[in-house]
Amino acid sequence: NVIKLDDNYQYALVSGPNRDYLWLLSRTPTIPDAVKEDYLNTARSLGFRVDQLVWVKQ
């Protein structure tokens, strides 16, 4: 389920069938802080627990 996608397809917020799975995907190894916060705010507003996200270094 694609929750949010930017106009240039650089970032996407994707969930599983319930609120147990959430991914913030990026075409680049890093995500600007402003973009990350915007997408996390969207996830929070939909009831996702973003404090449990695991951030992977690329």
How would you sum up this structure, described in words?
- It is a single chain.
- The protein has 58 residues and is α+β, with helices and mostly antiparallel strands.
- The protein has one domain.
- The chain has one helix and three strands; from the N terminus they run βββα.
- A three-stranded antiparallel beta sheet has the order 1-2-3, covered by helices on one side.
- The longest helix is centred in the last third of the chain and has 13 residues, at 33-45.
- The radius of gyration is 11 Å and the shape is globular.
Task: Record keyword descriptors for this entry.
58 residues; alpha+beta; 24% strand; 3-stranded antiparallel beta sheet; globular
Count of folded domains? 1
Report the major sheet.
Answer: 3 strands, antiparallel
Uncertain stretches of 5 or more adjacent residues: none
Report strand %.
15-25%
Shape: globular
Query: So how many helices?
Result: 1
User: Roughly how many Å apart are the termini?
Assistant: 23 Å
Helical residue percent? 10-25%
Please tally the β strands and state the result: 3
Order of helices and strands: EEEH
Task: Name the average pLDDT.
Answer: 96
Based on CA atoms alone, the radius of gyration comes out at: 11 Å
Which structural class fits the helix and strand makeup? Answer: alpha+beta
**Strand ordering within the main sheet:** 1-2-3
What's the helix and strand layout?
Elements (H helix, E strand, L loop, with lengths): L1 E4 L5 E5 L6 E5 L6 H13 L13
Antiparallel strand pairs: 1-2, 2-3
